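Researcher: Sequence recovery benchmark, item below. Answer with residues only.
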């Protein structure tokens, strides 16, 4: 810097001794030289360090790939209510093409509710839901990336070569062999959850078996559901065309079903052609100056990439606490002395380590402009507020605007939604657990970050309507 100041002084003296015309051209040259010096100096905006952190572009190598017939079969199964105990909900109810692979709600309404997205209700009479599902339904974009070897907000399903099935999961040794990847392993679970898809004891045999923990045994949850699919000739033909080991209906098992659904999710909801991806592949014009400024903040001053790193802008195997707002019925944790279970200890539920309390998976920051509400309990539906929460969790919690919670109202459900937030003794430990140093960014900088998140959103993901089948082989309704 000292050297540069001296150089400037010499220049100014030289300019003063020149004629006006000569001054002008000299100025021009001088400005160019100064720019060149600044560009070469260490005082420049740190582009070199910034760009060193940018990920390599995503390629086919990064994704599980599948053939068209398996994808098509998975597409049908994913939208077919035949896989739910009471035949009233499909995977797509909570991960719908028309809701950007989520459900548009803070917390999902499981089996018993009617309708989709924001118009979903909590059900009526004997069918009404018993509780809200305690966590936000995450989007499924890029869940078929090989890097996604860990599933769920707390990572309770993950690839693990030490296990016979290849995965650690809540099913332990019950998890069968033959699952293609963690995404397929994940598909074993929603069907056995009473609130999500199975239903309540006494309502149907799937629910009865699920309540007894009979998942893998003869007549268990997976057997019963495979049996339903075996009875539909259109499905049998499709399975035969996809799987070499399916020669007749009785050969179909739930692992075939799970692998097909993973094929659909992986291929159809792959989203790696955003302007940011194009930029990473060398098209420097793909992003606007504001988006580039946002990217530099994301990888620099704003500190986002300290957690949202890697090609997916969220590594599947990292868990952090950002002191997220806890709403809804919770996961039943009571080690902190509260017996109502409305807390959610996050990662600690899997590791048993109290140091992991309130840590949740660092979710991918890709496609987020399409996927609110955000966070493990869907507490934020305003992206600016969510970013401000990251910057200063304590202040954001104090200022939290509850009106952004999006879910159908029912008096008894609403009554417990804010139990944790209403009790300072329960929010304090959440805020004490945070893994971030508070930062202050201007409103303009936050807008630039949102510009970058927009650039990291694949335009192809905006309209997924055509991937929603009009009918499914069971004949059960797809839209309602
Ligand atoms: C009632 C709503 C609901 C239904 C139905 C449902 N899910 Fe989900 N899904 C969720 C919720 C909530 C989570 C997160 C749960 C958690 O992390 O504890 C989730 C998580 C996932 C994930 C993990 C994504 C990630 O980033 O970790 C995948 C993949 C997924 N679901 C696929 C499916 C499939 C396949 C089906 C059907 C077999 C299905 N879901 C049915 C609500 C639902
Ligand atoms: C200390 C690690 C950390 C840092 C730094 C961080 N995040 Fe996050 N972020 C997380 C975690 C963990 C979650 C999920 C929290 C949860 O589920 O409760 C998350 C969630 C998000 C989500 C919501 C994703 C979804 O699908 O719901 C967005 C968007 C996001 N972060 C953007 C940012 C931005 C922008 C920055 C920089 C200002 C940032 N994050 C900095 C850890 C971090």
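Model:
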């Amino acid at each position: 810097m000292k050297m540069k100041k001296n150089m400037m002084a010499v220049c100014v003296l030289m300019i003063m001794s020149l004629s006006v015309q000569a001054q002008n051209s000299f100025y021009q040259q001088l400005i160019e030289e100064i720019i060149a010096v600044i560009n070469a100096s260490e005082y420049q905006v740190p582009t070199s360090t910034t760009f060193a952190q940018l990920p390599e572009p995503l390629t086919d190598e990064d994704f599980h790939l599948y053939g068209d017939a398996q994808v098509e079969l998975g597409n049908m199964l994913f939208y077919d209510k035949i896989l739910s105990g009471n035949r009233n909900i499909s995977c797509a109810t909570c991960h719908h093409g028309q809701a950007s692979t989520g459900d548009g709600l803070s917390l999902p309404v499981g089996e018993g509710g009617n309708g989709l997205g924001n118009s979903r209700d909590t059900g009526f009479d004997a069918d009404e839901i018993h509780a809200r599902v305690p966590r936000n339904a995450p989007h499924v974009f890029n869940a078929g990336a090989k890097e996604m070897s860990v599933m769920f907000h707390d990572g309770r399903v993950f690839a693990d070569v030490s296990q016979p099935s290849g995965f650690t999961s809540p099913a332990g040794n019950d998890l069968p062999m033959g699952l293609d990847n963690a995404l397929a392993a994940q598909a074993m679970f929603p069907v056995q959850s009473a609130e999500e898809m199975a239903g309540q004891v006494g309502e149907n045999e799937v629910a009865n078996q699920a309540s007894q923990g009979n998942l893998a045994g003869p007549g268990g949850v997976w057997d019963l559901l495979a049996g339903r699919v075996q009875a539909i000739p259109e499905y049998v033909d499709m399975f035969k065309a996809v799987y070499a080991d399916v020669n007749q209906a009785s050969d179909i098992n739930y692992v075939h079903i799970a692998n097909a659904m993973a094929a659909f999710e992986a291929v159809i909801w792959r989203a790696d052609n955003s302007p940011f991806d194009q930029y990473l592949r060398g098209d420097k014009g793909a992003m606007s100056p504001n988006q580039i400024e946002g990217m530099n903040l994301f990888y620099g001053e704003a500190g986002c990439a300290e957690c949202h790193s890697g090609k997916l802008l969220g590594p599947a195997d990292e868990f952090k606490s950002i002191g997220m707002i806890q709403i809804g019925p919770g996961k039943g944790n009571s080690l902190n002395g509260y017996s109502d279970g409305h807390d959610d200890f996050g990662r600690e539920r899997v590791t048993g380590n109290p140091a992991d309390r309130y840590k949740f998976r660092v979710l991918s920051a890709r496609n987020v402009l399409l996927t609110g509400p955000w966070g493990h309990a869907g507490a934020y539906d305003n992206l600016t507020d969510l970013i401000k929460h990251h910057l200063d969790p304590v202040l954001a919690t104090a200022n939290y605007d509850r009106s952004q919670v999006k879910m159908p109202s029912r008096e008894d459900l609403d009554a417990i939604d804010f139990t944790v937030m209403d009790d300072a003794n329960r929010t304090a430990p959440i805020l004490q657990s945070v893994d971030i140093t508070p930062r202050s960014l201007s409103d303009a900088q936050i807008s630039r970050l949102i510009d970058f998140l927009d650039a990291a959103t694949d335009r192809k993901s905006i309209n997924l309507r055509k991937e929603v089948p009009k009918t499914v082989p069971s004949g059960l309704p797809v839209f309602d």
